[in-house]
Task: structure prediction
Amino acid sequence: MQTEEIDTIIKERAELESTEAAHEAGTAVLAELSRLNIGSEAREIAAQLPEEYKGALASGEAAEDLTRDTLLGRIESALDLDREAATRVTHATISVIADAVTPGERTSFVNALPEDISGLAVWS
Result:
């Protein structure tokens, strides 16, 4: 998937007003995900993403065991959103990133995420 397609899907799923807002949200979520302690999965996912998203996912120190509440709280703060909007943005971003990679990498990525966050990788 190209950047524009990812931005458009995040915009639609998160019910945002513009693709620019979607891009900002997507990169903020990936920057927080980059801090998760998920082994090599962040690098492997990043390798399959467009440059703008690759950089966001590779930006963290990858040493934290974040909970869903902590992750959403950080997204709230980073984007000045309420919890409902932060949840939509995070769900939209994680699910589109999971959709953007190969099936095998998607499975590895979802399995590497903490259990309370991995459910956000599926868009229904």
The domain at 3-121 is CATH 1.10.490.110 (Globin-like). The chain has one domain: 3-121. The mean pLDDT is 90.
